[in-house]
Design a protein that fits this description.
This protein is α/β, with parallel strands linked by helices. The protein has nine helices and eleven strands.
Length: 207
Amino acid sequence: MIRLALPKGRNLEPALAALAAAGLELPVASAERALRFTLEADELEVLMLKDWDLPLYVGYGVADFGVVGSDVLGEVDGDLLGPLTLAAGHCRLSLIGRPGSVPRPGSQVRLATKYPRLARRWVAQQSWSAEIVELAGSVELAPLLELAEVAVDIVQTGRTLQANGLVELEVLQPVAPTLVVNRASYPRHRDRLNSLFRRLEVAGVAQ
């Protein structure tokens, strides 16, 4: 039996589609409702986790492998193998704010985000500085309600920004669903995992 961790939220659909293309059909209805379920014929147990918890479950060996956003991997500590990136579900981590709100060189601003570590590393390379305001969600509201001048958040289509009078000021980095594997689990399940990785690559749904 091998244990797979899948993310609730925006990365679930591309993960399920990629696995299906590789010949591993998972019951979508069960994936949406259950915390865990088992496919006896495939000798597979599936855990449904929040993105931010998933690297910890894989890192501690509770799950053998999983799919998680590269944004989360950049924010959460963990010594994981990341052999493949899925072809679908890409978005970007961007600096957002009101039009014309790019910080001036030498200035200091407040920057709201749920990615404080990524934001600090990026701000350290800029010509301006920032006080980081950490939020758990509703990051777009921060510049709208003047909690912060700018924010760092995930942007997919940009429609939410446009609807609220905000713009994408700069892209920090691309973000993609990433396959992660526990280092101790890989030798135990090498043949099975490598077979899955090859099928994903052949199907053109991962690289």
